[in-house]
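Our preliminary data section would be incomplete without showing what the modeling component actually yields. Below, a chain of 426 amino acids is followed by its predicted structure, encoded as tokens that our downstream tools consume directly.
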Amino acid sequence: MQFTTLTTTAKNGFEWLAANYAWILILLTLLLFSTKTLFNIPMGIMAVLGIYQVIITPRKILRDAGVRFLLLAFLCLWLPMLISLADAVDLPVSSETVFPYLHYLFASIFIAVSLRPDRVRHIIHTGIFIIVTFWCVDALIQFFAGKDLFGYPYVPPQLTGMFYPKMRLGYIAAVASPFMFEYIRQNFNDRPWLVLMIVPLCAVILLSGKRVAWLMLAVAVVLYFVYLWITARKISPNIMISSLFLGLVIVTLLYTCHPPFQHRVDQSLGIFSYDYEQADVATARRLDLWKTSIAIFRGNWVNGTGPRSFRNVYSGYADADDFWMENGRSGQTHPHQFVMEIAAETGIIGIIGYFLFWLSLLVAMWREHKAENTFFITWSLCVIVALFPLNAHLAFYGSYWSSLVWLLLPITAAWHTLPQDIHGNK
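Predicted structure:
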């Protein structure tokens, strides 16, 4: 009797897992972005499952408009990387980026197809909102208590939360903010208290100490309000007033009561200075990186030097007084600016691919806008924030940011309007 009960329980457990493993893998991937590299495990599993899906039902997969959108977006970014190998200065290093990049395509196919059922999309949206909120609340506990819930210490002036010791929380929260705003708006009537989640979200981005994250948040806010205006979405005056008031209070309190934040703001104003040194400090010493990037592009303008080769060619193009060549330094791993990284490492071909990627995304957004496809637009805004041309943080071709982008894109594609989806639902 006991054995039968255990067998039944195990069977039910396997059945539940078989019915829910897709959203578990997707949410686990997002959650593990708080680690250094563990997100690669579920991403790799999803890539294998995506390959299996393509092999078993290739025609059905390719009939999915969302998958076709992903394929076009992927080719825009990946083909220039492949072409750059012809003149790569370090072929082994570049090859280790270009060919493993293929797994993002299959992982994204798995994600997009798995998210077609409304039930799974609802779970994913709720799960993402909970994860991002938890990250932000945990980080605020770290700020006020000196340690977060996992014992990670607060090391001023940068707030890390669960991402300790990496300083990526501000970037991830900023990328997620358009979705967070829309989730709050759509659920405000039933749960008006959700608007309070704007406080930890914005506070953590500002307290992260990352000025690029501030820029990303500003871009997200502007884009979101433009989206509301263009689509004529109704937004409660209470949400609008509450959000603006909370945002103003957060910035004012941080500037007057938190010296590290005040220092970063004052330092950032140097970007508008005519003094080179002040402007260089305001950009975290990126001006020399950008000058060298331009020099590398000029010398390799067709197809660049190959992905992730920036560090290997830096010294050959840097000025004699380059900050990153002083005191035994040998340059940087990437230019800390997306457009310059693409130009230096994949040349004009990469820039064209990047432009075509944006064109395909904007065309899809316009079509989905006509179809009143709310969440396709919302997730597209997250993609725009993640791939914004002025972003000056992590490497465009690096595994961390690439993995994030190829988690966002299939979630976006899953909302692509179809006359009939691959599950046969009208």
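The chain has 18 helices and no strands. The longest helix spans residues 338-370. Preliminary results of this kind motivate Aim 1 of the renewal.
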